[in-house]
Request: fold
Amino acid sequence: MAKIAYYPGCALNERSSHLDRSARDATLRLGFELDELDTWTCCGAVPPVSEERVMNLIAPSRILKDVRDSGRDTLITICDFCYNTLKRTNYSIKSDEITRKRVNAFLADDTPERDYLEKDDSLWVDYEGEVKVIHLMEYLRDELGYDKITENLKRSLRGLKIAPYYGCVMLRPQNEIQLDDPENPAIIEDFITALDAQPVKYPYRTECCGSYLSVSSPDASTRLCYRILTSARKNGADAIVVSCPLCFYNLDSRQKAISEAYSDFKPVPIFYFTQLLSVALGVKFGRQGFEKHNVDVTPVLDKIGSSTGKEDEV
Amino acid sequence: MSEKMGLAPPKSPPIRLTREIVNAGFKQRVDELSGQHSDACYQCGNCSSGCPLAQEMDILPSRVMRLVQLGQSDDIFNSETIWICASCFQCTVRCPKGIDIQAVMDAVRQIAMDEGIDHFGPDQISPELAAEVPQPGLVGVYRKLAT
Reply:
């Protein structure tokens, strides 16, 4: 079975472990394995605010260099923040000579001092952005092919109307990310179609959910989430699908505050794309971590047909 | 966050421009940090009309751009806008002049923080929230809004 280097990131390692587990379950059933890096650190969540803050580039660069040094050229991430940070760091190392030199100077300097690692006497080779950072959904679309998913479906999601939610950092800034059109993307819609469900078109799919403002200005985030959720609901969505742990948190947990503030609000269940994928591929509902959801997902699960194949632990 | 909901006030007190303030180097510093050319902005307002957080702001992103051009750092530092911006890159994607407006916002935030203005400290988060927000939110907020 093909093994691909995988960077989970801190959210998937702990608070969003259901995203991690459903991704691992689903990819095994699709014939490849997410091979978690032996050592990794937090990537820093956001790229540095300016090129003067070189230190913020060091953590993601070290992760990328470790992947290259292990002889691999592709790194899969799922969290949109990790994806954005790693990919943009790689982009600036690749395209900007000064950044490349600065980062490598720091990396070369700090390696011997990390005494918890074995002493490495091999020749130093500058990291020049050789690793390709890809999102799991990008891998499914470009490397595996969405038709491979359709071939392996074990449960039917037919008739389910699902609204894709892209959020901000998965697509933007476009010149560095180049995953899809930043204003009119189709990658999640095509994914939903591949699962035999029906994608819902609605205007707020690429609008920000408030991101980290849910910590500093929660009310602002609540209002943004209300707009997104009601728009999806008005256009007939049974559920919303996301890939980012923070989008999930905002859209899912904010619904409590939204219900208190807006009397007309009806809850909308939120799913990670990997949860729908692994459910469609026949993995048990019990392995999806639905108990971590704030909004009840049973109305959606009731609409999903029973598995045609044998359900197994993975 | 501003007390009032709804659109930002259309009128602000007049700005008194002096050669000293305009030439004090604020714009140059912003351009240097962001790698952008803020003079390219011709005030079309596309950033403000697309900004999902415009309703929460006291001055709109396009006005921040104008104030940067005129070196009015105090007006920017005294506003809530730079701390409400969630760095979602909508403005960056839509700017017809190709200015990375998000980078300009980041630069302004960094200058404010270098001058000792922090917006959000570790004591301002409730323990319940800290225990449940996914880590990108926690790391992101302190990287963007505090030194």
Observations:
- Chain A has a mean pLDDT of 92.
- The longest helix of chain A spans residues 218-234.
- Residues 108 and 123 of chain A are 11 Å apart (CA to CA).
- The domain at 2-134 of chain A is CATH 1.20.1050.140 (Glutathione S-transferase Yfyf (Class Pi); Chain A, domain 2).
